[in-house]
Specification:
This protein has 87 residues and is mainly α. The chain has one domain. The protein contains two helices and no strands. The two termini are 41 Å apart.
């Protein structure tokens, strides 16, 4: 069975309208989507804070008071490049 362009557009319009009706006011679809996203965000932030603390500790161990600021700067720049590239 062939579908005309007009029929396809109508089907797409109806599906889109159905999906819009199913959405929550905040734009999410599932009931626990917002909670799961919040949990993920909190976990990732904790992990990042741990990495930052590790950079501070290791940079101090490697370079002492004099060299650690440069080491931290280079490591943080590398981390930022990875994060910006992950988009």
């Amino acid at each position: 069975m062939k579908i005309t362009k007009r029929q396809l557009r109508r089907i797409i319009r109806e599906e889109k309208a159905r999906l819009v009706l199913e959405m929550n006011p905040d734009g999410s679809i599932s009931d626990d989507e917002v909670d799961l996203e919040d949990e993920l965000t909190q976990e990732v932030v904790r992990d990042l804070e741990g990495l930052i603390a590790k950079v501070h500790t290791q940079a101090e161990r490697i370079g002492g008071d004099f060299r650690s600021p440069g080491i931290k700067s280079r490591v943080f720049k590398a981390m930022a490049m990875v994060l910006h590239g992950a988009r």
